[in-house]
Amino acid sequence: MTIDKIVNLLEKYYSANGFQKIKPAGLVNEYFREFNPSAGHHIIDSVLKNKEKVSTQKFFVVERCLRKMDIGQVGWSHHLSFWEMSDAAYVGQISKEERENTFRLYKNFFEKELGLDMNKLLITVNGGGKIENLELAPDTESIELWNKVGFSKDKIIPITGRRNFIYAREHGSPGGTTCEIYFDRGEEYPNTLRYLEIASLNMYKYYVVKEPEKANLVELIPSVNISYACAVGLERVCAVLENKKTIYEISNISPLIDIINSYLKNETEKEIYRKDVNRLADQLRAVYFIISDGQEPDTSTRGKILKEVLREIKGLSYFMNLKEKKLFNEFLDKTIEIYGVRHPQLKHNKERVLEILQKFDIL
Predict the structure, then answer these.
(1) pLDDT digits over 21-50, tens only?
(2) Count of domains in the chain?
(3) Which of 151, 170, 221, 271 could form a disulfide with 146 if both were Cys (CB 3.0 to 4.6 A apart)?
(4) How far apart are alpha carbons 319 and 178 in whole angstroms?
C-alpha cells in the first residue's frame, strides 16, 4: 500500500469522524528555527500557550518533517532524515469521553482501515518519574483507556524515565506524556528490527518556559488547555503493510534506490555500498523537498543545515564515484512521479535544485 493510499484512508476516516483537514505548515515555517520536526504543532502550540480556555477543536493534517538529529542515524533499518507524518488531534477542553474516543478512533483505524493484527501491536506508556521540574505519577489513565478499547494489559507496558515524555527544550513548546505504538514483526527479525514504532498518541498538558538568561533551566508549566494528538509515521506504516524488512524497500523509496544502484558496476558494489546508497537517496530526497519549500543554502539556521546535507551528498557521491548529471536528473524526475500529485511544488523547483547541486560541485 503506497503512502498516497494511506493518506487517502486517513483523510476519509478522520473527515467522517468530524476532524477538519488543515493546511500543513511545511518544512519551512515561522514556528521552528530548524525544519518542521513533527505534525500539527503550529495549532497545538498556540492552544496550549493560550491563557484562556479554548473550546474543543478537532483537526487532521499530513506534514513534511525533518530532524537534524536523525541525519546521523540514516542508512540502515527504519530511520530517515526526511519523512511524512499525519496527526489527528483534539485540542482545548477535552472531556474524559473525548479522550476515550481518541484512543478508540486510533485503535479502529489500525484495525479496521489498515487491517493490522492487533495481537502484534505493543503500547508503551509513561511509568512515572522526574522530568525537569515535574514529578510524574504513572500514567494509569492511558492504561485504563487502552484496556477499555480492547488492548489486554500484557500489551500495555509502562516505561519510567524520559522515553515516554515528549517535549523540546524550546520556550513555548508543548510537552506531555506519550504512548508509543510498536508493531511486532516477529522472531525472525533481530531485536533492533523486530519492534518498529509506527505511531504515538501524544497527550500535551504543559508548555515550556525557558528564560534566556538561564539557558539550562527549563520549567514545564501546566496549561489550561490540553491536546490529545495521534501521530502516524507514514513510511513506517507503509513498511509494515508492504512487509518490507527496512524502510528503504518501501514503494515510495525503493525506486529512488534503484536509480542510484543502476549507476554502480555490479551486485557486489551494490551490497558494499548499501548503507551509502540509502543515505544518498534519503538526503537527495530531503534536499529536493527543502528547496521546494523555499529554503536556500544561506546563513540562517535552516540554511546551514541544508548546506550540511549538501556537503554530505557531495561526500557520498564522491565516495561512490557518482557524479553523472543524468543520475540526478533521473532521481528528481522519479521523485516527481512518486510525490508530485500531493506535492506539486516539486515539479516547479527541479531546475533550482540542479543549480544548487551544481554550485556545490555535486554534479
Answers:
(1) 999 999 998 888 899 988 888 888 888 888
(2) 2
(3) 151
(4) 41
The phi, psi pair for 123, rounded to 5°, reads -125, 125
Please tell me whether residue 59 adopts helix, strand or coil conformation: strand
- Helices 350-359 and 325-339 cross at an angle (nearest 10°) of 150
Beta-strand relationship, 134-136 and 156-159? unpaired
In which element (H, E) is residue 220 found? strand 218-233
Mean pLDDT of 317-327: 92
Q: How far apart are the first and last CA of the chain?
A: 34
Residues in the chain: 363
Q: Assess if residue 198 is contained within a domain.
A: yes
- Give yes or no: residues 281 and 188 share one domain: no
What pLDDT score was predicted for residue 213?
56
Give the pLDDT confidence of 246-282 residue by residue, as tens digits: 999 999 999 999 999 999 989 999 999 999 999 999 9
pLDDT value of residue 217: 67
Q: Are residues 212 and 83 in the same domain?
A: yes
The CA angle 253-254-256, to the nearest 5 degrees, is 70
